[in-house]
Specification:
Largest sheet: 4 strands, mixed
Shape: globular
Number of domains: 1
Strand content: 5-15%
Distance between the termini: 19 Å
Strand order of the largest sheet: 1-2-4-3
Helix content: 25-40%
Organism: Klebsiella pneumoniae
Order of helices and strands: HHHEHEEHEH
Protein name: L-aminoadipate-semialdehyde dehydrogenase large subunit
Length: 165
């Protein structure tokens, strides 16, 4: 299974990786969130690692419907999950920050559309701003990885910090 292959890159114990089956995976499309937001398995989720990604330096018509609106509907649904302990938002909109600027951070750098380097950076900032304003009780953690950082090492440190398996 592709998920298992990708998890091996994070040097997780093989026993943990082998516990993951297709029944543990919830597929969803943020452009059509109604198809997965009603899944009752969402109520039992304790930790969300949200790394939804859009790569677009151009004028992408799906950024609003598929990324911003869909993501906010997902956040709204997860805010209603009684067992949610962590909602880890990994900013993956292609920001190129220095290593000293990455890591755990709870203060997003909001930008307006006119000042954004790329439309996807503006969309990610807007999502974070709305999450903080509309869902102040959401156990949000935000990570801004540098594009130059080894992602598997960062992923391991995130899991250790959150006490995740």
């Amino acid at each position: 299974m592709r998920v298992n292959e990708n998890l091996r890159k994070f040097q997780l114990a093989e026993t943990l990786i082998n516990r993951i089956s297709s029944g543990n995976i919830l597929l969803g499309d943020l452009t059509a969130p109604d198809f997965f937001l009603e899944d009752c398995r969402l109520n039992a989720i304790t930790d969300v690692i949200n790394c939804a990604h859009i790569t677009s330096s151009g004028n992408n018509p799906f950024i609003w419907t598929g990324y911003v609106a869909g993501m906010l509907r997902f956040v709204d649904r997860m805010s209603q999950a009684p067992s949610l302990r962590h909602f880890l938002h990994i900013e993956s909109a292609g920001l190129g920050v220095s290593a000293s600027e990455c890591g755990l951070d709870n203060k997003p750098g909001f930008s307006n559309y006119e000042n954004a380097i790329a439309q996807c950076s503006w969309a990610n900032s807007l999502i974070e701003q709305r999450i903080i304003e509309c869902y102040p009780e959401l156990p949000l953690m935000r990570i801004v990885p540098s594009t130059g950082i080894e992602q598997t090492e960062l992923g391991n440190s995130i899991c250790r910090h959150l006490n995740l398996p």
